[in-house]
Description:
Layout: H1 2-10, H2 15-25, E1 33-36, E2 39-41, E3 49-50, E4 52-56, E5 59-64, H3 66-70, E6 78-81, E7 86-89, E8 91-96, H4 98-104, E9 108-109, H5 116-129, E10 138-139, E11 171-175, E12 182-188, H6 192-195, H7 203-219, E13 222-227, H8 235-243, E14 250-256, H9 264-276, E15 282-290, H10 320-332, E16 336-341, H11 344-361, E17 369-372, H12 383-387, E18 390-393, H13 402-417, H14 423-428, E19 432-435, H15 446-455, H16 475-482, H17 484-489, E20 507-510, E21 527-532, E22 535-539
Parallel strand pairs: 1-6, 2-7, 8-13, 9-10, 13-14, 14-15, 15-16, 16-17, 17-18, 18-19
Antiparallel strand pairs: 1-4, 2-3, 4-5, 7-20, 11-12, 20-21, 21-22
This protein binds zinc ion (ZN).
Amino acid sequence: MKRIRRYQALFAGSILFAAAVLAFAQPAHVADAIITNAKVYTLDVQHPWAQAVAIADSKIASVGEDAQIEKLRGPGTKVIDAAGHLVLPGFVDCHIHFLDGSLSLGRVNLEGAKDAADIQQRLREYAARHPGKDWVLGRGWNYAMFGLEALPHKKLALAGITNETPDPANGAIVRDPKTHEATGALKESAQELVARVVPRPSRNEKLAALRAGIKWANEHGLTRVHSAGGDFEQLDLYDQLRREGQQTLRFYIAYFLNPPNLRPQDLDTIESARKKYRDDWIDTNAVKMMVDGVVESHTAAMLEPYSDDPSTKGKLFWDPAKYTAAVAELDKRGLQLFTHAIGDYGVRTALDAYQRAEEVNQTRDRRPRIEHIETITAADIPRFGQLGVIASMQPLHSYPDADTLDVWARNAGPDRASRAWAWKSISNDGGHLAFGSDWPVVTLNPWEGVQTAVTRQTAEGKPDAGFAPEQRLTVEETVRGYTLGAAYAGRREKTEGSIEPGKLADLIIVSQNIFAIEPHRLAETKVLTTIVGGRVVYQAPAK
Length: 543
Ligand SMILES: [Zn+2]
């Protein structure tokens, strides 16, 4: 189509004539761009490897040997010489909070901080570099940074939190056990108490953050993200970026449904959005719900008490009957469900509700998803395959550092920890895997996730035997979780997720052949080129 438009400019006023001339003047399938001299891993089972790819009209036109693809080269064809590098389908992040992540790019980065003193040092440096800022917001801290029993401690007068402030529903204000004084740590919904007094970013600040976030995602090889909350309210911002030609990342954005009920106004909001946004760039046909919290703060719902605190099993955020009813109603409308479930009881509750929805609606190809699945009972593992439920998991969350081994595994206990992030078992029993990051909880860089899924060890190779090492995946299985598996999880495997003729031309060229290197080097992978819809949207600076 691009070619025809160029002709229209030359022969203004005689469009039909121009089109007719074009048909005779050019071979039938001249490519807009070709990638040659590459190692192309296609994920097409019939032809897993190729040398070259031709792109036309934002789609993949042909995949094959260099000589064959060269024939599609015309005078205007852009030629990308991959210099022998690996080409993969564009990566998809199946669980992200995109606006939050984008805003976090402007905050103090606490990732990898060793302890509280290190955090304080980073905060001081940031404050010195940003003298006009009233608020210093950090990101990327974890529980282990403050020692096993501790959490950060500070005063909260501005947020109006006092010793008398009650805990909100599904949240907790952490208090000193002796004085009952609020320490400054807030769990789950209690974070709202501070969030509401932090100055809200303006529309222009959000747009600027999103542009930076999109660029950041493209630089790491992402061509689509599945937003799991926080972005639905901002759909007009995404729409504006698209109208301005700045959207170089595809978005699948779920509506976040809060307990206790599915209300008519939720349905109105969902229905009007999905009439407007349902194409290759912005799709909104999904609803996210959270049935529980996280293991670290004992808010994930477990079937048996926590190992380190037998007084609690966590609790469900939803009344199971109301959650099940909401799932059935949304499923009946053809909406895809994403349920955050981390504890084994949370996971079981979601599986039960999905099974019920299938029984009452008799629907086919529903592909409901469970997000996170950090623990699961052995009996529930085969239900993913049986019920067609997608396991949407975040490999880097299982990274076995002190936060995971000393806090997470201590709380869960050895039995549950033996089935931690059990993607291999779920996959062996026929379940579909889809991978993501949960950015800004951890980096959106998928290559760190790839390494963790393959090694189940830290960058230093700890623990020696790996963390629940029988859950290790091959590089091929892991790549599938970020590409074709991810496309399936977003109901787009017919048009995305592999390098096959007719699919959207979303591709990446990377710095090393990840199938032929030592697994502890996978995270070093750099993206050289990112192509979305046939257009180069990121090019690494030449060395
Ligand atoms: Zn999340």
